[in-house]
């Protein structure tokens, strides 16, 4: 197992966790210790190689469980640095980077250090629960949106859905089910019992839609989610055209209702904090809504004494530069930039308005400060903000300074698709919603479906080697402190429910209907996915209702109501089991990860630190599979044993502890069909 004529490449390992780089998140002026692992007495030299090919030989250090750890130290300057390793044995040379061993240096995959880049410790590996508020729980019917209370896009009246279990309509944006913050408050103990450590709210600021990504007022919580105390109306004045909106004006622009809703939200946050849970808000700063008080295209603020004229109403509006107008013939034929061309989503024009810039910076500070004290921001379409890439980066640098000054341990995570490196340099975002290095590779491996259920790719399905290659490549784009706080989701408000993806059917609600999203689903595949979610580096994020068995095609069907009274209790208990395990073992929060074995329908990997060594294996096929996993590669004693923590298979899961002896560091076993298993090294006698 250990000694060969050539370098034992399976024994080589290093990463950016605290066991191999200390401090893990160093500051300028720190002395940084770098470690590299090899099989004992197996290599002649190990070199730490910096970008630019400056190198230093590492010294042989601690020997443990057949491995020797080479070490070196250096003083970190104020500049970022990158490094990899060169390993020599006789005339043989190989290299080691973030994607593992290679014959030649892979400079693009070097380990990286950015001095002073810290992400919140509380967020590393934290269990997040995402809530789309209108669909979670109706705790206060008095604040429900009423039928015809106002007109939405294309003068469509809003609708109050009275059947909580009715699936969303294909055009759903103006349908309201009544979920609110009171409903969340009533279920905080449920979330605590589920194992939740962070609540992430989809937008909750004043907005006319159920999704609220078209914000109307950044300073206030929507009273339909908060408190409606003054349910008043006012007399229609002569000449007012948008009469249907007047009820909406009085309910959600009334300052008593707005202030009461903000105060109530502060109570909700305080109650979450008292249970040890954090709260993250959704920040939609690339665009607002045409209903916004700055634009007022729907003319709902016009004439109200406490509000100044919107930019759509008057050329003299103080908000005119908040938007980029292409036609300025007030009050008619007014055209402006909309995000992706949507005139209901006016793009904010920061470059031409320092007032707007400062306002949003203040919003970033306001909600993480007293009395609200939220714990971070999720940033919607963050890479789209601004009219140039240069400006975009400067905006997020300033936003980070403002938020972190107000609350140093606030989390800043962004919605992003593609390579996030230029934003994860320590001066902008902390991390991203982890599509590329989690949701997509896992979805392709387990279901062969694209994350919207829009495409089926059998060439990407069940290929364990491709899964690991993709994961390692995409993870290499992260600093370790970003990776450990990345939002690892299976589902969310933009993509189909993972349980629906397990039926391997391409479709949407408009073409397939709601019932089809529930047909042929395989809970065994969902359990495998949750097992990976709770054991892979990052912050496991549960989309409300996934734990209770909710299905759904992509938006809007993925926004079904939480099935109170009709939950899949077995799935809920399984999620509780996995969150308990995740929180019980620090190696699952901040430890190293190493692929151990792969094949068709098969992956096995280790999570480990100096104290704990865990192994995860999946068989996604419909037949039993004999596997042999080289657990010695993560430091498990070759002659020891491992203890099973959980096994999922078929329609159930098993928490009974089962001991498995090793033979020469190999864990050999038969995996049942569509199963996942988690082992931990047994303690020494």
Model description:
- This protein has 685 residues and is of the alpha+beta class.
- Mean pLDDT is 94; it is low at 234-241 and 243-247.
- The radius of gyration is 27 Å and the shape is globular.
- It has an 8-stranded parallel beta sheet with strand order 22-21-20-17-14-11-24-23. Strands 25, 26, 27, 29, 30, 31 and 33 form a 7-stranded antiparallel beta sheet that branches.
Sheet with most strands: strand arrangement = 22-21-20-17-14-11-24-23
Straight-line distance between termini = 24 Å
Low-confidence stretches: 234-241, 243-247
Question: How many E-type strands?
Answer: 33
Principal-axis shape: globular
Structural class estimated from helices and strands? alpha+beta
Tell me the β content: 15-25%
Task: Summarize the main sheet.
Answer: 8 strands, parallel
On the 0-100 scale, what is the average pLDDT? 94
Radius of gyration: 27 Å
Number of helices in the DSSP assignment: 14
Please bin the fraction of helical residues: 10-25%
